[in-house]
TrEMBL record:
The keyword Chaperone is annotated on this UniProt entry: no
Topology in membrane: Multi-pass membrane protein
Coiled coil: none
Name of the protein in question: Murein hydrolase transporter LrgA
Length: 142
């Protein structure tokens, strides 16, 4: 498990270094996360293209320790909402003063998001047949 944690810290460090060196507007840990994901995808693709004798085709790209650490961190993900909730409570006077613009922007962005999604779905399925006309393949899924 310590090597898996060091792996996460290494990729976070690489992301921070890349962010500062290239003056990117993206947080370093996010860049590190993408670098880690890219490395895992590269390892998975390399395993698929490896000769039969080298490595099992169904071997995971991530080590078991890294997978276990990721599962443990995801299980604790809800704790990250505690600081945001405390921040909301401590800023209640500011939120109360600005309640109308906040509610208007939340409502407006929700409606705008729904309209854009409906427009994109309409354009994407414009030439497709209606769902009720699509064969259900005798109830088989894939």
């Amino acid at each position: 498990m310590p090597e898996a944690f060091l792996t996460l810290l290494l990729f976070q460090f690489l992301g921070v270094v890349a962010q500062r060196a290239l003056a990117l507007p993206i947080p370093g840990p996010v860049i590190g996360m993408f670098l880690l994901a890219g490395m895992l995808l590269w390892r998975k693709a390399r395993q698929k293209n490896a000769p039969d004798g080298e490595v099992a085709a169904d071997a995971p790209a991530a080590s078991p320790a890294l997978s276990a650490l990721a599962r443990s961190l995801i299980a604790c993900l809800g704790l990250l909402f505690v600081p945001a909730g405390v921040g909301l409570v401590t800023e209640l006077p500011v939120l109360g003063v600005n309640a109308v613009p906040i509610v208007a922007s939340l409502f407006g962005s929700t409606v705008l998001g729904l309209l854009v999604t409906a427009f994109v779905m309409h354009r994407a399925t414009h030439d497709a047949s209606a769902p009720e006309r699509v064969s259900d393949a005798d109830g088989q899924v894939l």
